[in-house]
Design goal:
heterodimer, A: alpha+beta, 6-stranded mixed barrel, two-stranded antiparallel ribbon, 12 strands, B: alpha/beta, Rossmann fold, 8 helices, 10 strands
Amino acid sequence: MDFRESLTMAVKTLTASKLRSSLTMLGIIIGNASVISMVGLGEGGRRYINEQLQSLGPNILFIVPGNRETRRLGGLELARNLVLADAEAIAEQVPSVIDVAAENTTPGLISFFNRNANASVIGTNPAFITVRNFTMDQGRFISDLDLQRTSAVAVLGNSLAERLFEDQVALGQSLRINNIAFEVVGVLELQGSNLGVNYDDAVIIPITTQASRIVGRTSPYGIEVSFISATARNADSMQTAEFQITNLLRLRHGIVDPDEDDFFIQNQDTLLSIADTITSALTLMLAAIASISLLVGGIGIMNIMLVSVRERTQEIGLRKAVGASRNDILIQFLIEAIILSAAGGAIGTLLGISGIGLLSLLTPFEASASVSVIVIAVGISGSIGLFFGVIPARQAAKLDPIVALRSI
Amino acid sequence: MPTLINLSHISKLYGSGNTEVKALWDVSLTIDQGDYCSIMGPSGSGKSTAMNVIGCLDRPTEGHYFFDGQDVAQLDDDTLAAIRNRKIGFVFQQFHLLPQLSALDNVALPMVYGGVAAAERRERAAAALQRVGLGNRLMNKPSQLSGGQQQRVAIARAIVNRPLLLLADEPTGALDTTTTEEVMAIFAELNQGGITVVMVTHEPAVARLTERVVWFRDGEVIHAHMSPSDVSYGALVE
């Protein structure tokens, strides 16, 4: 008996009991749909994070306080913070670097007349706008003079400006940050969320002003900053810049043993690889959880097939009596199991793809079903049919025709 | 006529030691091609076991069974399946039709396993159904047919591969008198056409329509060439 015959026979048998066949498939359908949508979601998350990281530009370096050791421990061990002077030294002494920005973020209460807003107060220096590649919507960014004079000037993120001033002109207005008066000198263009920091909903002030008037404390080494970002001259000088910054900071911090480094330099690539590790693990975990339902679906198929062999004992006996070989029976039952799981897989795939569409609407991730995942998922659900179909099919093939015919 | 079935000192034992049961004991029997023969005997006499051995559904414990000149006593399952497919047609008391298939597909089933092409299958199955008088019921499912019609579909299935032997196990056991006569008429006609017909039955009226009766008792052949008219005598022997 050739394969095509077996296929038509199996289809006839399966369509003869439609309700049972569809219920059997349901497990695989759900399993496959969840695998595909979960992996799609994970992939969407990964792409979202990657896009955010790539928008930073290839030439940017982040210098973050702490060392590998403390970072691994979750920062429990206190490391010496970076200070503004470190940033200034990098700007002056590292030739492969163009611009250096220092950033220090604190929460603050911003108020304009009777309107209040909780927002991040970011103290930084004028190079910030070039390093982060931001643009102004109105007015100007903070200047070197502001820094020297610790002027009370503020640049508003776009959404914050809208929230506080609505249709009024923000420029030249006086607002209060933690009850200290600042003059609005500029408004940033809409930037979108950036690595979890929403610059649209922040107010930017000179870092010196922030240190002396808002934070009110500095480290013994100077004005503390959360991190320093720097742009290298070009992509080729990234390694040079990293090397030179490392040397300079070790010198400044009096570090001899590289293991004692109290700062850490990250660039787009290292951030990408960190994010990649995390999102891959997340995707894998989602896929693993979803796979369990696929497995359960497979067991459901085995269960129904076993019952089916019992019920169809006479049919099997008759088939054998009229000349079916063991293989004919084995293949027939295997094909039935494979059809159930493959059809379930196909329907589940369609469902999974529509699920992904829905997820894309509900989350900022542009989730998508990759062809490879679909191929793998359908392949896996087909093999599940094969795997879980073997035991029932072998039982059927082993039946003795005399015993099978006599059973009623 | 040449010999089709030659059982030579066939024994079939079940279990071992104290619980050993001799279903067949040293049975020797020949049936020629073209014979129309019934196997009778009380229940437990071994006639069903003999039928299974003759039909290549079961292997004897001892002895040789030459079917169509070939010793089939100890062949493996798949070889026996192939022999059944090509040379033997079965008719059962319970018809054993597949409920999900049409009459045509049921009849075509042996040819599916015989590797016959689909177009030829349809043609031959239709012809076989025509032959048993069901040419107008090709697409009916078994549930849409009467008992007698179902048994005629089963007969069509049995003859569709042009077997040497038609083996029937209580073929009229589930039928009323009228349909029994119809079915027996078909058997007689097929036998006229040259097919060897062997049936197991416990109905003397049915056995009397055949040409020869083989009488079994306690796993042994008591009469190998009984005249059908003496069936009541056989019953008396019991």
